[in-house]
Each structure stands twice: as structure tokens, then as C-alpha cells.
Design brief:
Elements: E1 20-22, E2 34-37, E3 44-47, H1 50-63, H2 79-89, H3 94-97, H4 101-114, E4 120-123, H5 127-136, E5 140-144, H6 149-158, E6 167-169, H7 177-192, E7 198-202, H8 205-213, E8 218-221, H9 228-232, E9 238-240, H10 243-249
Parallel strand pairs: 2-5, 2-7, 5-6, 7-8, 8-9
Antiparallel strand pairs: 1-9, 3-4
Helix pairs in contact: 1-4, 7-8
Bound molecules: magnesium ion (MG).
């Protein structure tokens, strides 16, 4: 898979007020052995609607049926569950669409890949500097996202961030985010060692819940669609307005 990487543009600072909140005063955000980064709202924002449009479009092409994402909560959800919920809202039984799901996933990827030029990627503030910082400390870096694998990697590649990551966890085999994070943590420990600490980084209450269900620490960053105060209600180990704020809090 080859992608033409667009010129990197420095992101706008979304939060002008720098804030980082730690649940323990001696907690160091950069001291975990491995990190699992969510993609949308955490590493980057992919604008242009290409990914969302690929859901109904692929179902139309593969099954000649109509679905809509209008009533589906997208933030923190997984692609495979979004699809399942959209079918449910359309009154189409699982037994009807399940035989087509691999074909739909593949078509979604093809649609997104064909329209990659319409995807506008904004890298979140401080992401690149944080990844550089963690890489210098020899931390293991992976992505763990509700995206389908090929779509997730494409976004990361378009953002120019692909080289930071050794592995990823994706929703192709898991509708449940907790199961996806669990599998990604196993992959992380294959890189960093059996007893290594694995930290989840995400932008939604669903990321926090998925980390918790696996007994993993979590950094919640409010660069997605939830405010820091909303995220703090779910008690992440660390909450911050951006990776930039967190990074600067260490100096
Ligand atoms: Mg997200």
C-alpha cells in the first residue's frame, strides 16, 4: 500500500489554555513501556466525510441496500459496530448482512483509498513532538482504533505518522472496543516484554472504559469531541487538553 504523503502543516492550537490533570502527583505520562494511541480525535482529525460516506456506499454497492449513520453514535465507536448498528436501525437482520461483511469491509477500504485525495488530515497539537519524545525514550508505540485496519493505516500514513508505529489493533475482528484494546495490549507486550506497562491514549469515554476493562492506565486528551471536564468525569489516570499541553507540562 503506497500513499502520497501530503506536506505536513502545523495544526492550529485548539486549546489556548494549557491543562494537564494527573490522578496521582507522582504519575509520569511518559514512563510507561508501551502506548496504544487511538487515531480519530487523538492523533489526527480526518475531514471530508470520506470514511463516513463509505459505510452506506459500500452497503449499496455490495448488497443493494440502504443504511444511514444518522442515528449511530460515531465517537469512540468501532467501524464494525457502527455498521452493525446502522443495519439494526435499517431493520436488516444480522443473519442477512453477516455473510457479506468481509466484502463490505473490503469495499469500504477501496472507496476510502480511491477518494484519499478528498481526505484532509489535521494532526492534533503536540502529537508529532510527543511521539518523538516517546520514541527517544524507546517506548513501544502502537495504534489502537475502532477503524478497519487498512483505513486506519491509510489515515496514519496520510498524516505522515506511519513510521512511529510498529503494530496496531483494529476493529476488523472486534466490534467491542474493549476486546480490540485487549488484543492490542497483547501485541504491545510481544514487542516490549510480558510484564511491561501498556497505556491507552484516547479522546472519548469509550477509550477510557476500554482501557479500564483491560486493567490498563489511560491518558484522555480532549482534542476530539469531548471536553476535558467531560472526560475527567470518567476518571482517566491523566487528562489533558492536548498532547502539547501534556508534553509541555513535563518541562
Ligand atoms: Mg477517537
Amino acid at each position: 500500500m503506497k500513499a502520497s504523503t501530503p506536506a505536513y502543516t502545523e495544526p492550529l492550537l485548539i486549546d489556548t489554555e494549557k491543562r494537564a490533570v494527573l490522578s496521582h502527583p507522582d504519575l509520569q505520562w511518559d514512563a510507561f513501556d508501551a502506548y496504544l494511541f487511538d487515531i480519530d480525535g487523538t492523533l489526527l482529525r480526518a475531514q471530508g466525510g470520506v470514511h463516513n460516506d463509505a459505510f452506506p456506499e459500500s452497503v449499496r454497492q455490495v448488497m443493494a441496500k440502504e443504511i444511514s449513520l444518522d442515528r449511530v453514535l460515531l465517537h469512540g465507536n468501532t467501524d464494525t459496530r457502527i455498521l452493525a448498528q446502522a443495519f439494526e436501525h435499517a431493520g436488516i437482520e444480522r443473519s442477512v448482512w453477516e455473510p457479506y461483511k468481509e466484502a463490505i469491509y473490503e469495499r469500504m477500504w477501496t472507496i476510502v483509498d480511491e477518494r484519499r485525495k478528498q481526505i484532509e488530515i489535521i494532526v492534533m497539537p503536540g502529537v508529532r513532538a510527543s511521539l518523538d519524545h516517546l520514541q527517544k525514550k524507546r517506548r513501544t508505540l502502537g495504534v489502537a482504533t475502532g477503524n478497519l485496519e487498512l483505513i486506519g493505516w491509510l489515515k496514519v500514513e496520510l498524516a505522515g505518522l506511519r513510521d512511529y508505529f510498529n503494530f496496531g489493533g483494529f476493529s476488523d475482528k472486534f466490534e467491542d472496543r474493549g476486546a480490540l484494546i485487549g488484543a492490542a495490549a497483547v501485541a504491545a507486550r510481544q514487542h516490549s516484554g510480558e510484564s511491561s506497562t501498556v497505556c491507552v491514549v484516547g479522546d472519548t469515554p469509550a477509550d477510557i472504559a476500554a482501557a479500564r476493562s483491560n486493567g490498563l492506565p489511560v491518558i484522555a486528551v480532549s482534542t476530539g469531541s469531548y471536553s476535558l471536564d467531560e472526560l475527567l468525569e470518567h476518571k482517566p489516570d491523566i487528562g489533558t487538553t492536548s498532547m502539547l499541553a501534556l508534553l509541555e507540562s513535563t518541562y
